[in-house]
Design brief:
Elements lengths: L6 H13 L5 E5 L7 H7 L4 E3 L4 H13 L3 E7 H5 L3 H9 L5 E6 L17 H5 L6 E4 L3 H13 L3 E6 L14 H5 L1 E5 L4 E5 L2 H13 L7 E5 L1 E3 L3 H8 L4 E9 L4 H11 L6 E6 L10 H7 L4 H13 L1
Parallel strand pairs: 1-2, 1-3, 3-4, 4-6, 5-6, 8-9, 8-11, 11-12
Antiparallel strand pairs: 5-10, 7-9
Length: 313
């Protein structure tokens, strides 16, 4: 059994600790599946609201609370708190310049047993199109706690993507550069830089290990903040490398790879870039997450072969 909690539970636990000291912090959910919510509901009944499977209404309620000075978190499954609520997020929150932390659990193929209705494979594209909305993808327990803490102390309109699976540590606890810079190198390397986040950050580290068996290892960076991307950070981070590769469990259209390409163009960064992502096609296959990733070319072996070929051409 993993000693550390799931990213979801680490995030909720951190918000709970701050909520016990700040009665302005409100947590709203459309899902009671998280065990970490039990003590929130038990100990802070005036700061916790379960609104049922009514995600659009949840956003409107959050907007009203935010307009009255509350620090609001809304939580639901990734596809339902984004795609289902996109108009409400645009009109009730973004256009009104209201802070709200929108938390989507189970991004990518996390809900592999539930089919395309539960896959969050276009959520980044939707949410980074909302003006003024940050898009953050948690890559381990530390970054989950960091994101929760800073969302309590520095409210803003942001979408936080959490994976359903346990994610091993990728960061050194106590290092806040991830929040300030949005992108940080987590494994050193030469010539090629792999940029990934969340569940795929761990796969990128596996790709690095596989490539290191026969050639210099590429470096790996956590693309924690997809939107906005700081041009000065991207320029400094990519300067030592000849080629860049983005890896994500999201459709190719509008994802993190597209965000990097746009930022490179906007800031005059000219380097070969390869984007590895889910082809823009819905899958109805069963067999678990590993099987789905193999079908779309996101298994470690296939990605390593693509990176090796890209790096040598």
């Amino acid at each position: 059994m993993n000693e550390k909690p799931l990213p979801r539970d680490a995030f909720i636990d951190e918000v709970y600790e701050y909520a016990t000291r700040d009665r302005n912090i409100i947590f709203i959910t459309a899902d009671l599946g998280a065990k970490a919510l039990d003590r929130f509901r038990r100990d802070l009944p005036g700061q916790f609201f379960h609104l049922g499977i009514c995600e659009q209404n949840m956003i409107d309620v959050a907007a009203g609370l935010a307009q009255n000075g509350r620090i609001v978190f809304v939580y639901a499954m990734g596809p339902f708190v984004t795609l289902r609520c996109l108009e409400q997020i645009k009109v009730a929150l973004a256009s009104m310049h209201l802070p709200c932390c929108i938390v989507g659990n189970g991004v990518g193929y996390s809900y592999d047993d539930a089919g395309p209705t539960h896959y969050a494979t276009e959520d980044v594209a939707c949410m980074r199109s909302i003006a003024g909305c940050e898009v953050l993808t948690v890559g381990d327990t530390w970054s989950a706690r960091l994101t929760a803490r800073r969302s309590c102390t520095d409210p803003g309109l942001r979408y936080v993507r959490l994976d359903r699976a346990f994610l091993p540590d990728a960061h050194v606890e106590g290092d806040d550069r991830l929040w300030n810079d949005g992108i940080t190198v987590v494994a050193p390397g030469e010539k090629t830089l792999l940029l990934a986040n969340g569940f795929m950050l761990q796969r990128a580290l596996e790709v690095r290990s596989l490539l290191a068996e026969s050639a210099p290892a590429p470096a790996v960076a956590d693309l924690f903040r997809t939107t906005p991307i700081r041009g000065d950070v991207l320029r400094s981070l990519t300067a030592p490398f000849d080629r860049l590769v983005t890896i994500e469990e999201h459709f190719l259209s509008g994802g993190s790879g597209g965000a990097i390409a746009e930022a490179m163009a906007d800031h005059g960064i000219s380097k070969p870039l390869m984007r590895i992502a889910i082809p823009d096609q819905y899958r109805f296959d069963n067999g678990g997450r590993r099987y789905l990733l193999e079908l779309v070319g996101l298994d470690v072996r296939t990605m390593a072969d693509r990176v090796r070929e890209f790096a040598t051409n």
